[in-house]
Amino acid sequence: MIRLHESQPNGTLGALLISSIPFCVTLEPPDLLNKKNVSCIPGPQTYLCRRKESPSYGDTFEVTDVPDRSHVLFHPGNRKRDTEGCIIVAEAWWKLTGTADEIKVKNSGKTFGRFMWMMKGIDEFWLNITYSL
Questions:
Q1: How far is it, in rounded angstroms, from Cα 74 to Cα 16?
Q2: Fewest beta carbons within 10 Å, which of 1, 17, 81, 133?
């Protein structure tokens, strides 16, 4: 995953690449020093992701070994408040008007479904968080 720019108060934007090919955009919370449920995942770093059955999101992947945190998942959502310290995957971003430049994502549920379909038969993978210039 490549983070496209530094974290901002309205979220951390990124792009998820699968086998070096851009797959979708991502939305995480801003960088709040790794605080549980409200901060993006610390990077740059590499994390092992494992398939997990979540009570809230069903079949998904958990980002493991995030310092002092657990249940960091890939899942669908619409806004920063939906991230819960996790990674939302989506087709595109846009800013909501009249909401202090809040970023919203488009077609997250459908994109999450495609992500899980592409990961069929895969139980774990390495997530490399890097930064774009």
A1: 11
A2: 133
